[in-house]
Amino acid sequence: MLLKPSDRPRFQWIFQPLIQNAVPSAFAEKISLKEHQKAAAYTLAKTGFGQKMLIVEILVLLLWTLGGLLDMLDQAWLSLEWSELWTGVAVLICFGMLSTLIDLPASVYSTFRLEAQFSFNRTTPGLFIADMLKSLILTLVIGIPFIALVLWLMAHAGEFWWLYVWAIWIGFSLLMIWAYPTFIAPLFNKFQPLENDDLKQRIEALLQRNGFASSGIFVTWQRLFYRPWRQ
After folding, report:
1. Cβ-Cβ contacts under 8 Å for 208 (sequence gap 6 or more)
2. pTM, full prediction
3. β-sheet with 212-220: strand ranges across
4. What residues pair up with 218 in beta bridges, in sequence order?
5. SS3 state of residue 217
6. How many CB atoms lie within 10 A of CB 48?
7. DSSP class of residue 183?
8. What integer pLDDT is reported at residue 221 of this predicted model?
9. d(CA 213, CA 37)
């Protein structure tokens, strides 16, 4: 897919290296002109879509804040007369789920229209729905206890509650570095061991030079993925 002339003036100052009709010399032996132009067209389309979505996100944010939607959501949960802690948890979880629902049309368009237009999409509608349900379950399983703990600390930990929350967030982030590739990523991707022995050895050598090792190097949809642990 070639670039349209009308696409060039808008992003030319940003994507000048992309929109030329020749592959940059550094990649000339590895990338064809057709692949180069396809990548450029995809970058322009993705950037244009992202700019439109930025405007939509600003409008949605204004509706949540100045439009009063967040206050309406809060009042709806307050009417149930739950404890302050669980009302706060419910408001935040509900806000996140509604935000995801509002973003759903854009996600569908990006996956099944924009990505498919350039033959990048490998997601079926069934897989898309399954991934959404998995994400929802993970959000509830991980998000509810974490939010409850943060709100409890805000209410009971006194003046330095923010320091405790920061420490918990750092610990949680470090835990996810280990847990994500081991338990979460396999729920959404299929991994196959890297078969290129030369590339595998080079990656392992790079890891070792930086004090890391891995329990395996895998390929998922033409991307490399490794499970790290610090020596």
Report:
1. none
2. 0.75
3. 192-193, 212-220, 223-230
4. 193, 225
5. strand
6. 14
7. I
8. 63
9. 38
Taking only Cα atoms into account, the Rg of the chain, rounded to an integer number of angstroms, comes to: 23
Cβ contacts of residue 70 below 8 Å, gap of 6+? 64, 95
For residue 20, give both structure tokens.
């030329």
Q: For 191, list phi and psi in degrees, rounded to 5.
A: -110, 140
Q: Which amino acid is at 126?
A: G
C-alpha 151, offset from chain centre: 25
The whole-angstrom separation of Cα 73 and Cα 215 is: 46
The DSSP secondary-structure symbol of 112 reads I
Amino acid, single-letter form, for residue 163:
L
pLDDT tens profile 122-166: 888 999 999 999 999 999 999 999 999 999 999 999 999 999 999
**C-alpha 148: how far from chain center:** 24
pLDDT digits (tens, 9 = 90+) for 88-104: 999 999 999 999 999 99
**In which residue are the tokens 């930086």 written?**
210
